[in-house]
Each structure stands twice: as C-alpha cells, then as structure tokens.
Specification:
Elements: H1 4-25, H2 34-42, H3 54-60, H4 67-82, H5 87-102, E1 116-117, E2 120-121, H6 136-139
Antiparallel strand pairs: 1-2
Helix pairs in contact: 1-4, 2-3, 3-5, 4-5
Bound molecules: iron/sulfur cluster.
Iron/sulfur cluster binds at residues 110, 113, 115-116, 121, 123, 127, 129, 134, 145, 147-148.
C-alpha cells in the first residue's frame, strides 16, 4: 500500500527547496550556491545511485516548483513505487525526470512506459529487443526506445 501522504510530503519538500533556492539565487548573488546547500543536506545520506549531483540539483531547483510541477513529481513517484522502486529511489528518479524536462531531453525510462511490466517489456519485438527482459539497470536508464508509450501517470 502506497503512502500518498508521504509521497506528497516529499514533493512538497522538493518544492520548498527549489523555491528557497530560487529566492537565494536571484536577489542575492553572493548567497551560497544551491550545490553547497545540497552538499550539506547530503551529509550522512546512505548510497543513493539515482540522486542528482550537486550541479544537477542546481539546475533542477533553479526555477520555483509550482502546482503542476508538484503534481507531476507526485504522479511519477507514485508510478515508480507501484513498479517496485523504493521510496528514496523513486524520489531521486522523479527529480531526475524533472531535470530531464528542464533540459528538454527526449529520452525516457522503461519504468515510465505503458509496455513495462516489472522486469519485462510487453512489446519487446517492436522495441527492438532480442529478449523481453528489462533488467533493473535498463529500467532506470534514460534512453530512446522506438516503441515507448507513455503511461497515464508518467
Ligand atoms: S517498449 Fe521500450 S521503453 Fe517500453 S518497456 Fe519496452 S523497451 Fe522499455
């Protein structure tokens, strides 16, 4: 059972960080860069392979997060968790997808695809795969797939 309050809480914390960072960056050029704040926040965090680097976080949090961004983040995190990703990894991946949006990167994750079933691609031939297996590394890697089909939530 997904904890939607917790997911919404994570989205709100990202929005708060981005909105605070935005206030720090614009009117006060001498303020510490977001990367320093992110580095401080990251002290004592366990290994998080999908977490944005400090430089990436600077970009992802440069603009304030409005309601649409928060809703998109929440929907993505929910989808990722439904597909077996832990809350922390789903949080990091959803923020990574937000960065992708900002950078107009057209690559996608299998985890966002309508054809994805945990560990499998339901349309492997059209996707150009030799086998229907989608391992964890592939599922979390941004790539271009000829048969990607966005989920309702994605
Ligand atoms: S169609 Fe492509 S993006 Fe979708 S699950 Fe299969 S390999 Fe992944």
């Amino acid at each position: 059972m997904l904890d939607f309050e917790a997911i919404r809480g994570r989205a709100a914390r990202h929005a708060e960080a981005a909105n605070l960072a935005n206030r720090l960056i614009d009117p006060q050029p001498e303020a510490p860069p977001v990367s320093q704040l992110a580095a401080l926040a990251g002290v004592a965090q366990p290994l998080r392979p999908y977490r944005l680097s400090a430089a990436e976080a600077d970009v992802a949090r440069r603009a304030p997060w409005g309601g649409a961004t928060i809703a998109r983040f929440t929907a993505r995190m929910t989808l990722l968790m439904r597909r077996g990703v832990s809350a922390t990894d789903a949080d990091d991946l959803a923020e990574r997808l937000h960065l992708r949006d900002i950078e107009a990167d057209e690559r996608t994750l299998c985890l966002e695809c309508e054809h994805y079933r945990v560990g499998l691609c339901g349309n492997d031939r059209r996707a150009g795969l030799h086998v229907p297996i989608v391992g964890r590394d592939m599922a979390v890697t941004l790539r271009r797939c000829p048969d990607f089909d966005k989920t309702v939530l994605g």
